[in-house]
Write a structure and sequence with these properties.
This protein is an alpha+beta fold. It contains three helices and two strands; from the N terminus they run E-H-E-H-H. The protein has a two-stranded parallel sheet with strand order 1-2.
Length: about 70
């Protein structure tokens, strides 16, 4: 009872990353769809980040900060 373990969701697709974020997951582990994207990993990761940010904004979560 000292702390609450974080909720981590494994998302094998961009859509599932969005769903986990909308459900309130603390962390989203993205799957191989990042590496398998024909546009490259950077573009796929940007898309996943955008989906997660939109989901957080839609459910009243604090906006994530990019480091």
């Amino acid at each position: 009872e000292l702390f609450e373990p974080p909720c981590v969701g494994y998302a094998p697709s961009r859509e599932e990353a969005r769903e986990f974020a909308a459900a309130g997951a603390d962390f989203v582990l993205v799957g191989d769809f990042i590496w398998n994207d024909p546009r490259g990993a950077a573009a796929a990761l940007k898309d996943a980040e955008q989906a997660i940010r939109e989901a957080h904004a839609g459910c009243g979560k604090v906006k994530a900060e990019q480091g």
